[in-house]
């Protein structure tokens, strides 16, 4: 385990962008698709801030996690768990099904990580 300053700053930047998207884009391509792309990038970089995992294994792990969340959304896990709309659990599990955005996000992260060598 180690702390990587560059990845920490990138994580902070991605988090700020995600918050701005949530605040200012209520629907459309940026909110629904780009927000999902950036969310897996944020998770990838955030984990990489603290752990020195193999890049491909980290990317696949984040992708599997994201897919698990998406499938939970698809099967309406929020309803089975009786989460109220707007609650933390409801927001985390969300209400969309966008595997393509997550896949694209991981591809973008891996390309940047291999080319720039973060």
Q: How is this fold's topology laid out?
A:
Blueprint: H1 5-24, H2 29-50, H3 55-74, H4 77-80, H5 88-93, H6 99-116
Helix pairs in contact: 1-2, 2-3, 2-6, 3-6
Description:
The protein is an all-alpha fold and 118 residues long. The chain has one domain (5-116). It is 76% helix and 0% strand. It is built from 6 helices and no strands. It has helices spanning 5-24, 29-50, 55-74, 77-80, 88-93, 99-116. Helix 1 runs antiparallel to helix 2 (29-50). It is globular and about 40 Å long. The two termini are 16 Å apart.
Task: Please bin the fraction of helical residues.
Answer: over 70%
The radius of gyration is 15 Å
How many distinct helices?
6
The helix-and-strand class reads mainly alpha
Strand content: under 5%
In short:
By secondary structure, the chain is mainly α. The chain is 76% helix and 0% strand. Helix 2 crosses helix 6 (99-116) and helix 3 runs antiparallel to helix 6 (99-116).
Record keyword descriptors for this entry.
single chain, 118 residues, mainly alpha
